[in-house]
Amino acid sequence: MTQYELHAPENLNATVKLPASKSISNRALIICALLGGKELPQNLSDCDDTEVIVEALRKMPETIDIKAAGTAMRFMTAFLASTENGEHLLTGSERMKHRPIKILVDALRMLGADISYAGEEGFPPLRIKGQKLDGGRLEIAGNVSSQYISALLLIGPMLRNGLEIRLTGEIISRPYIDLTLWTLREFGADAEWTSVDTITVRPKPYCSRPYFIENDWSAASYWYEMVALSSQRDAEIRLEGLMDGSKQGDSSVRYIFSLLGIKTIFSSKEPGVPTTVTLRKNGHHVSRLEYDFINSPDLTQTFVVTCCMMDIPFHFTGLQTLKIKETDRIKALKTEMRKLGFILHDINDCELLWDGERCQAEVLPAIDTYEDHRMALAFSPIVFQQPIIINNPHVVTKSYPRFWDDLEQVGFTISKS
After folding, report:
1. Could you give the residue numbers annotated as active site?
2. Fold (CATH) for 3-20+214-416
3. Domains 3-20+214-416 and 22-201 in one fold
4. What is the pTM of this model?
5. d(Cα 325, Cα 49) in Å, to the nearest integer?
6. pLDDT in tens, 55-94
């Protein structure tokens, strides 16, 4: 097992070029493939999740292994089912074979797709025979993974009759659905919310165009966390390639961190133009944080760690999708925070809270990452307050391959074993 022991720099003042948004990259890649793949987007993410899609689309082998990339599994299922690219077996890691996909498969079957399970019913691997689909109307529970809905929306413009999706009950992760609709429209599609619970995609094909992908607000969250946990009052980080008014759901990080005393300053606020964002302390933070992460669940680990290390009790809700991520993130957070001396409680697998309860902390805690990139990324900034070890640090390649290189350039010392 590989381990990294981290040591923080004495002075935190640096400029960092963030990775490109994998959320936008993956959506744009599928759209470009539906257009025939003649022109790839510029500033494409180099993370694992995007690389597996690039490789699959380039080679189109009979067996496509998307490894641990949940987005790739959902998006490629819809793509392969709706295009005349022959028959494929779509598979992934052992964890992926236990992540549910029945809701998406059922929806595609209702549109006429030919998909069968090659293993356990309701889970990958899938055997998919590609064909043109007519489209039509679907009804899907709104509290399922937004990636199911996004996968369907991406193929919507190419369906003969378009697509109408009615979402029932509570709608979670709405910003990710809005990001998908925005990306569709960037490529000329006619797609919109036509009522509070219904999305309509009309049968108007995509238009090919040069496309530049902005950088990743999710990756920005870990640099916000470093500024927050640094004891240096004039700590400053400058992040390149972010946009004011971004459609990325995790751009809400700037608002949430303002509650924890971090100020966000844009060099330019010109719409649609990436710019440099400067992070600084403003000296004031809330004494307790209550927040509903229903629209940005991937930020949960960042704020659980930050609040505990800043001694800020919290109550976080809207976490129902965390159990079906790369790992059971609620269980993982409770386990690893206990190593640091914090006792967290969960409610009905969809809420996490910390009321200040503590236990004996380990002297040099080794944080397990559970094949989950966000565990390594979110726990690393703890080193500003105490020494830590990160187990299996390579997991960051899923979304932020250059993370450890960026830390060293900023002044971190990483002892590798």
Report:
1. 298
2. UDP-n-acetylglucosamine1-carboxyvinyl-transferase; Chain (3.65.10)
3. yes
4. 0.90
5. 14
6. 999 999 999 999 989 999 999 999 999 999 999 999 999 9
